[in-house]
Structures are given as C-alpha cells and as structure tokens.
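hi! just following up on the protien thing from before. the input was this:
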Amino acid sequence: MTSDFTISSFATTCREAIELASIRDLVAAIRQREGVEAAVVLGRDGLLIDGQAVPGIDPERIAALIPPIIGPADELGATVRRADLLTAVMEYRGGVAIISSMSSEAILFVLCTPQANIGQLLLELRRNRDHIAALV
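and the predicted 3d structure came back as:
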C-alpha cells in the first residue's frame, strides 16, 4: 500500500492520517518536518518500534529512557484525577521534546529544535491520535 500524504504535514486531515501505510511512514513524515531532529515510536516497555534521528541521537537509547517518565506522570494524573498522560512537552535550552501516548501499547517521542513549529505538531497529534494509534 502506498500513501499520498504530504511530508510537510504528516497528518493534516483525518483522510491523510488513515492513508499512512505504516508506522515507518509516520516516523519518516514527522522526521522530515522542519525542525524535527528525531521521531521515535516505542512500546510501553521501552523497546524501539521504529525511529529516525539526526546523527548523534540514538533512537534505541531514547526509547529506553521514556517509560520511567511516563509511569510517574500517569501516577500524578491519577492522584489529581486527570487520568493517564496523553502528551508531555519538555522544554530544554536546546529545544523541545514531546512525548505523546498513542495507545495503551505505544508512545511517540519527537525531538525538536527551538525553531520548530511545535504548536502545529501538537495540534496534529491531538487531532489524529486515534488514527495514528490504529497504525501501532
């Protein structure tokens, strides 16, 4: 199956999100966005499902580091009666990291430069969460 989505916007419409052929297509589309240095899909166990990154960033290492962040965030959500974590945005001096729970089994991590349009990325992730989860 081939897809006809636009690389500059990985899922601008629900129709396009459905047409993404695989997780690999999703990762490639996100990674090719301006300002995105890494896109990683991982299991809740920390095992890499798929990932692409600029040289010097190891997707497997990223995947291993994410579950210890998700657990306490989910606990906080339960404590304050807000349920499980959907998306976390962590701002660092050198850019932004986005962790987004796609399903009960998969997590998406996106590493962005300070110049990346994270507002648009976050909106697309929210609008298309169910369609992206169907790929996992």
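The longest helix spans residues 67-79.
Residues 14-133 form a domain with the Beta-Lactamase fold (CATH 3.30.450.30).
cheers
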